[in-house]
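STRUCTURE:
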């Protein structure tokens, strides 16, 4: 019974994160619509739990997003899962502290890896599937996503770390 409830909670959290991500991309104006809520959640999860489960969460979340994508199936899923796997390794081996600058560097490097793999796989898929790509606009979108997602991560990190830490100290 405990495993069933854990699975349902896991599925519910992934669904909420995907809905928030899709809602942000549709309801916010142009530069803010590029915020990647899934990666913010995944980096915060890495900081909070320090668990390899983040790779499976990434796989499931990006599988649901892949269902709504216009690109050939698998490009988003493969690039995001591999980038989160590399990000988890970077967290355990390189960025080992919980400071805001390590988190922002981890977030930015994670998105750079993700978008580099995405562009590489998208380029390779043009040999097999006809995909019209404007590479200049694509890289501007990537840069905007990396910038705004990293800034949003820093704001959320400061909120959770500093404000909630002070609230908990006042209660105790």
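SEQUENCE:
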């Amino acid at each position: 019974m405990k495993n069933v409830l854990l699975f349902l909670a896991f599925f519910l959290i992934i669904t909420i994160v995907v809905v928030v991500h899709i809602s942000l991309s549709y309801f916010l104006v142009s530069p803010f619509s590029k915020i990647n809520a899934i990666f913010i959640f995944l980096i915060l999860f890495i900081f909070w739990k320090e668990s390899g489960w983040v790779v499976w969460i990434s796989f499931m979340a990006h599988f649901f997003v892949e269902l709504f994508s216009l690109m050939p199936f698998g490009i988003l899923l493969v690039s995001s899962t591999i980038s989160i796997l590399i990000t988890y390794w970077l967290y355990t081996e390189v960025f080992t502290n919980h400071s805001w600058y390590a988190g922002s560097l981890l977030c930015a490097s994670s998105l750079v890896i993700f978008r580099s793999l995405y562009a590489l796989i998208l380029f390779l898929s043009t040999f097999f599937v006809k995909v019209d790509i404007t590479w200049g606009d694509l890289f501007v979108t990537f840069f905007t996503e990396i910038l705004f997602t990293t800034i949003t991560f820093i704001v959320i990190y400061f909120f959770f770390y500093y404000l909630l830490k002070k609230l908990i100290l006042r209660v105790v």
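REMARK: Helices lie at 2-27, 37-49, 53-66, 75-93, 100-125, 135-171.
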